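Researcher: We plan to redesign the surface later, but first we want a full-length starting point. Tokens attached.
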């Protein structure tokens, strides 16, 4: 069964940091790009791509303009995991964060709330 599970969300004050992790199973992790997306409250029809990394080429990454310089995507320390380090968080980063593979399978999401 293809599965992606996000973890690491929580409540943090503006300026703080969080590290999200995506654990994947049931597919060839190396053959997929892994992307992080977020859905802000009140924007159920809009899902913003935050960051994407090619699992076979760590140098091939994408960052949304809104997070560039603050967020870093990387392969996790554990096998078949992907991390999103989020620094200098802002209230507008508040959203449910999802990871997704190239086939479009995504996890259930993890809530990130940044208080002002």
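Model: Full-length starting sequence:
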């Amino acid at each position: 069964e293809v599965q992606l599970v996000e973890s690491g969300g929580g409540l943090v004050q503006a300026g703080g940091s969080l590290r999200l992790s995506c654990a994947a199973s049931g597919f060839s992790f190396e053959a997929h790009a892994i992307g992080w997306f977020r859905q802000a409250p009140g924007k159920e029809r809009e899902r913003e791509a935050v960051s994407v990394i090619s699992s076979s080429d760590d140098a091939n990454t994408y960052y949304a303009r809104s997070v560039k310089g603050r967020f870093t995507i990387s392969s996790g320390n554990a096998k078949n995991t992907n991390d999103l380090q989020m620094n200098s968080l802002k209230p507008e980063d508040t959203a449910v964060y999802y990871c997704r593979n190239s086939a479009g399978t995504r996890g259930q999401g993890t809530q990130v709330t940044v208080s002002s």
